[in-house]
Specification:
Blueprint (H helix, E strand, L loop, with lengths): L11 E6 L2 E11 L3 E2 L8 H8 L5 H9 L2 H13 L6 E5 L5 E5 L1 H13 L8 E7 L5 H12 L8 H14 L4 H8 L3 H20 L9 H9 L1 H9 L4 H10 L6 H4 L2 H5 L2 H9 L2 H11 L6 H14 L3 H8 L3 H20 L5
Parallel strand pairs: 3-5, 4-6
Antiparallel strand pairs: 1-2, 2-6, 4-5
Helix pairs in contact: 2-4, 3-4, 5-6, 6-8, 8-9, 14-15
């Protein structure tokens, strides 16, 4: 989206937003003149939960600083002697600047300046400066281009939030989102469904750390059967799912892939709720060893294939097809050898 040709004037460039050229100035701006954005998608939920929408600039800095990723970023900024990647800001009527992209870099610089008095390397930040006429829709598109189209990747929840804003708030169609964000329609639909489901969960379980469990909801909506149970709240599935996630019983997306089988097996479900996922998975494995063994998974597939052998293969064996007979004999011997090693009589 950003253009690198056709400069309007020195230290000025432009970005194409919705078919129009929007100019911006390239400069370094004082950290003290920058206002962090309380509507930043990465921290809006945290701020709303902790401060009820009344967070001060110091609150925002500290909320960002609590993130390990921001502390790691500050170490890189310190080693580099300051921020190198331009942030995106918008001019304010009072002459200051509102951060539109780059809150973490800005907060890191604020903390580095506080912690290193007299070190002027952190006094200013390189920025792309837009006029205050930039609309909220323009900002949403601009940020999505940076963070959802993968130039600087955000976490999945924040990407989903940005997609949600573009689609539900600004009315962008699936076709527009597909072209702009370079995502498939199915992926966009997954993100929107997972975002809605996660927010329903967060309305009940308000710990900001639960945002990190978005990947569980993303995996859940990808499973047709689970999504149908969630949407229709079959047998109170939604509350049960929320509890499994909140209690950490389900904490890995890979566990979600087996959840439908566990729910459909009363013994496995009882083990899940009484002991945990591993116990439930073991119940299923005890009933079907193919679930826990590559060898028995292969035996199960081979058995099913042999039981439905087409007559063309049967006739080849009858007609003495040497290679097929050898394969059949090898399989027979391998099974006999396995049974002998295990002292099992077939």
């Amino acid at each position: 989206m950003y253009c690198t040709k056709g400069h309007i004037m020195a230290n000025t460039d432009f970005v194409v937003l919705q078919g129009k050229k929007v100019p911006y100035q390239i400069d370094r701006i004082p950290v003290d003149a920058i206002t962090l954005d309380p509507k930043n998608p990465r921290i809006e939920y945290v701020l709303g939960h902790q401060f009820g929408g009344k967070a001060s600039q110091a609150d925002i800095v500290e909320a960002l600083w609590e993130k390990d990723a921001v502390k790691a970023l500050s170490q890189a900024i310190y080693a580099n002697g300051g921020v190198r990647e331009h942030i995106i800001v918008q001019r304010k009527p009072d002459g200051g600047y509102l951060v539109r992209e780059g809150n973490c870099r800005t907060a890191s610089s604020v903390k580095l300046k506080q912690n290193n008095p007299g070190d002027n390397r952190f006094d200013a930040i390189p920025a792309h400066i837009f006029d205050d006429t930039l609309s909220e829709e323009d900002v949403a598109i601009l940020i999505a281009d940076v963070h959802v189209a993968k130039k600087i990747s955000w976490d999945a929840y924040t990407q989903a939030k940005q997609i949600h804003e573009l689609h539900r708030v600004h009315g962008k169609t699936y076709e527009w989102l597909t072209n702009q964000l370079r995502m498939s329609k199915s992926k966009i639909a997954e993100y929107l469904a997972a975002y809605d489901a996660t927010n329903q969960f967060l309305s009940v379980h308000k710990d900001p750390q639960f945002i990190k469990r978005f990947t569980l909801f993303h995996e859940m909506v990808r499973k047709k059967g689970l999504k149908e149970r969630f949407d229709a709240d079959m047998d109170g599935f939604r509350a049960r799912w929320f509890k499994l996630v909140a209690d950490g019983v389900i904490h890995d997306p890979r566990q979600v892939r087996d959840l439908e089988a566990i729910l459909d097996d009363p013994d496995a479900l009882a083990a899940l709720e009484a002991v945990g996922y591993d116990a439930a998975a073991q119940v299923l494995i005890n009933k079907d060893p193919a679930l826990g063994s590559d060898v028995f998974a292969a035996i199960k597939r081979a058995t099913a294939a042999i039981q439905s052998t087409p007559m063309s293969d049967v006739k080849d064996l009858q007609n003495g097809d040497v290679q097929k007979i050898i394969m059949l004999r090898n399989l027979h011997r391998a099974i006999e050898d396995l049974a002998t090693m295990a002292s099992v009589k077939l």
